[in-house]
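Possible regression after last week's pipeline update?

I re-ran a chain I had predicted before the update to compare outputs. Posting the input and the new output here so someone can diff against the archived version. Not blocking, just want to make sure nothing changed silently.
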Amino acid sequence: MSGIIPQREVHKKGRKPAKVKALRDAPRNKHCKLHIPGVCRQQDEYTIGAHMRFFSVAGMAEKPDDVFIIDACDRCHDVLDHRDQWEANGLGWEDVLRAFMFTIWSRRQSGLITLAGE
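New output (post-update):
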């Protein structure tokens, strides 16, 4: 599969990530979209923004742009940040993609993200 998508870094050293307060605040009191069984609090007041740090979209110890946030409770966020815990907690790439898609859908429903031509 490595031949399909170019394996180049997206992040450029010295580039500051886009920070958008409305996107950072959006997870408050929302449902956790990761919802890892046996891990998730299932209490909206613990939902925070979990930045996805995959595929070189951020530098070492940096966060990517705020568009790469998943609504996740603090416990699910911790598992997401530690890939060595994924298998033990039953988390896979499909779960992360699903959570990201539902988060983006939620942002579109609230009007925080719009598509050109809408």
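Follow-up from reviewer: compared with the archived run. The first helix runs from residue 21 to 25. Marking as no regression found.
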